[in-house]
Design brief:
This protein is α/β, with parallel strands linked by helices and 234 residues long. Helix 4 packs across helix 7. It starts with a strand and ends with a helix.
Length: 234
C-alpha cells in the first residue's frame, strides 16, 4: 500500500520578507493554495491517506484548512519544529508500517498537470526495496542534488551527488519501509545526506522524469509557477 507524505515544515522566510503574511503552505498559485494543490495531486493519483508535517506555529491554521477543504481525506498530522528537511523526512517515516511505501513530496514543488499522477503510475511497479526519485533535466535550484542515470537501464541511478549529473532531484520520493531502520541509527544534517547514505548502503535507486519542476521559495517563483501552469493548460 502507498501512503502519501507531505513536508510542509519550512519557515518560508523569503516569502515573508517579500510581503506574504500567510503560512507558506497557504500561499496561492493561480488562486489555489500550495497545500491544496499538493493534496489534490495525491487525490488524483488515488491516494487518500496522507501524513503531513507542519511547524508548530502554522499547524493549527493548516490543519483547519485541510479539515474544511478535504473532509473526505484521511490525514495524519505531525506538529513539530524541525531543523532540516532530513529531520522532517524522518519524522514522516517513523510511523511507516512494514507493508507500506511512503510517497513523499514537498509542499512547494510545482509540476505540470498530471506529472505527479504519471510518476505514481510508473513508480507503483518499483522493486520491493527500491527508492524511486522524481527527477528533472530542468535545474531551478540554488543547490541542486545531481543524479546520474545509467544508460539503457530504465532509470536506474548509479550515482547520487557531486558537482554534475544528467538530472537533478525535484522533491518527490517513493520509499520502502525498510529504510526507516537506517534513519533511526544515524542523524543527518540534510536530506541529501540521508539519500546518499541509503545509496551507499546498497539500496537500489531509480529515477522517473517529471518534466519541469519549480520550487516556490520567493515571489519570483510564485510568478514563474503561475506562468508555467497557465501555459501548460493551453
Amino acid at each position: 500500500m502507498i501512503r502519501g507524505g507531505i513536508i510542509a515544515a519550512g519557515h518560508g522566510r523569503r516569502l515573508k520578507k517579500e510581503g506574504f503574511s500567510c503560512p507558506k503552505p497557504l500561499v496561492k498559485i493561480n488562486g489555489e493554495e500550495l497545500l491544496g494543490r499538493t493534496v489534490n495531486q495525491f487525490k488524483a493519483a488515488g491516494i487518500n491517506k496522507i501524513r503531513i508535517i507542519f511547524r508548530n506555529s502554522i499547524c493549527k491554521d493548516c490543519s483547519n484548512y485541510l479539515a474544511e477543504k478535504f473532509p473526505e481525506m484521511e490525514f495524519d498530522i505531525i506538529c513539530r519544529d524541525t531543523k532540516s528537511s532530513a529531520e522532517s523526512f524522518l519524522c514522516l517515516l517513523k510511523k511507516i508500517q512494514s507493508e507500506e511505501k511512503l510517497l513523499i513530496t514537498t509542499v512547494d514543488s510545482i509540476f505540470q498537470e498530471g506529472a505527479f499522477r504519471a510518476f505514481t503510475e510508473k513508480a507503483v511497479d518499483a522493486l520491493e526495496d527500491e527508492v524511486v526519485l522524481g527527477i528533472t533535466r530542468f535545474v531551478d535550484d540554488e543547490k541542486p542534488l545531481f543524479v546520474t542515470l545509467k544508460e539503457g537501464a530504465k532509470g536506474r541511478i548509479n550515482k547520487i551527488g557531486g558537482q554534475s549529473g544528467n538530472a537533478v532531484t525535484c522533491g518527490v520520493y517513493l520509499v520502502p519501509a525498510k529504510i526507516r531502520k537506517i534513519g533511526e541509527k544515524e542523524q543527518f544534517p540534510a536530506l541529501r545526506k540521508f539519500l546518499g547514505r541509503l545509496f551507499d548502503s546498497g539500496i537500489p535507486f531509480r529515477g522517473i522524469d517529471m518534466g519541469i519542476g519549480i520550487d516556490v521559495d520567493r515571489l519570483q517563483d510564485v510568478k514563474e509557477a503561475e506562468k508555467f501552469l497557465s501555459a501548460s493548460r493551453l
